[in-house]
């Protein structure tokens, strides 16, 4: 079967960068250069997740191969070279919405994937309340286990130090989630 007709369930796993690109493409017809500008260091989304221009184009190609994005024409007016316009397919929008609704599982993903999800939800005027509540549940459960790990380690060991770091980091994320729901 041609790659442009692949089913959603047959699509390969998609990186966070790919899902970020899919999020922008899902906002409406666009081209790779416009997406890359948003993910540049000084771009609106680049403040959260920087994606170099070659990676943006590679992810658009991968998303196209997976049937989540399709080419819809060429922009020939304006400065610069012609640009291929792309848009998300229905399968792409479904995949994006599933990802946006899934909480991250590890605290280290909060700085990257969670903030990217919150930014994309904000850009699309979608309510983040359900994601924030699910995220709070994940980290509340995790915090209980981490506190038990602190109690089970020797206070003079690096394992204890690491367990304390994980407790503090997870608590900080929970504090952040509380703060953004109180605004």
UniProtKB/TrEMBL annotation:
<dbReference type="InterPro" id="IPR036390">
    <property type="entry name" value="WH_DNA-bd_sf"/>
</dbReference>
<protein>
    <recommendedName>
        <fullName>PadR family transcriptional regulator</fullName>
    </recommendedName>
</protein>
<dbReference type="InterPro" id="IPR036388">
    <property type="entry name" value="WH-like_DNA-bd_sf"/>
</dbReference>
């Amino acid at each position: 079967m041609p790659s442009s007709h692949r089913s959603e369930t047959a699509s390969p796993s998609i990186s966070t960068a790919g899902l970020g690109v899919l999020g922008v493409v899902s906002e409406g017809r666009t081209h790779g250069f416009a997406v890359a500008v948003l993910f540049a260091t000084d771009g609106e989304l680049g403040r959260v997740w920087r994606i170099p221009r070659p990676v943006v184009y590679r992810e658009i190609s991968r998303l196209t191969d997976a049937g989540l994005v399709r080419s819809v024409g060429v922009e020939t007016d304006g400065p610069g070279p012609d640009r291929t316009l792309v848009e998300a397919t229905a399968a792409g929008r479904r995949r994006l919405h599933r990802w946006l609704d899934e909480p991250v599982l590890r605290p280290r993903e909060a700085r990257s994937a969670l903030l990217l999800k919150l930014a994309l939800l904000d850009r699309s005027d979608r309510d983040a309340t359900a994601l924030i509540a699910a995220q709070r549940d994940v980290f509340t459960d995790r915090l209980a286990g981490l506190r038990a790990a602190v109690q089970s380690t020797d206070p003079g060991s690096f394992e204890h130090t690491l367990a304390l770091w994980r407790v503090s980091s997870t608590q900080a994320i929970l504090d952040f989630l509380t703060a953004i729901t109180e605004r």
